Amino acid sequence: MKITYPHMGNVCIVIKALLTDLGLELVLPPPTSRRTVELGVRYSHEFACFPFKLNMGNYLEAYELGADTILMAGGVGPCRFGYYAQVQQQILEDLGVKMEMVVLEPPDVSFHEVKDKILYLIGNISWWQVFKAVRFAWSKARAIDTIEEKLLYFRPRVKEPIKLEGYFRETLKEIDEAADRREVERVVNSFLKKSEIMPQLSMKPLKVGLVGEIFTLLEPFANYDMERRLGLLGVEVTRSVWLSAWINE
Predict the structure, then answer these.
(1) Of 35, 41, 50, 61, which one has the fewest beta carbons inside 10 Å?
(2) Rounded CA gap, 135 and 138, in Å?
(3) Average pLDDT for 47-55
(4) Whole-angstrom distance, CA of residue 100 vs CA of residue 201
(5) Residue 243: which pLDDT band, with cuts at 50, 70 and 90?
């Protein structure tokens, strides 16, 4: 079983931590690109939303790299996200793409179904190991939210925003590579200290709130990197939704 999942901001770091700790083999799709869009648009229904098409492109590119299983979240929200997996599975079958879709519905909808699918994925791993893996992945989700929030705050305020972005990318990489929660905490604290001592501008930035659908908010490719564009123009951006809050809900 070689598992893949669609990109959505930095959620890939969290899922990678969880599945790797559970001993599962991963095949990450390439970073979302114009080719991803072209594949998704070509094989999705015309009326399907943009996130749906990006997901399809991610799956097809991961399939080219050897993935045979897709891990996908379900849902019962106000949009058609809860139907993505079923429709995408049918499209893949029509294309002759042999990939199994494992859909994890919200536990409050069907706890036993979620439990059975987790057992199917992890095999004989103990529930204590599952708990530790979930706790570790959760620590990375919280860490990512912390540094992203500080990046949005400091980017319009510091004199060298590009240098700040370099610190941010390094920190993301270190969070991804961190082997335990203590290391994750150390990396985050290091980023916070570096950010706080950077020389700042004297003017107070305009503050803008970004609202909307969770995927479009978190995935820079889907929103044309709006947070960065505004930040470099001297605008502080705040979000209506964060990764850890979405996972928690």
Answers:
(1) 35
(2) 5
(3) 94
(4) 52
(5) confident
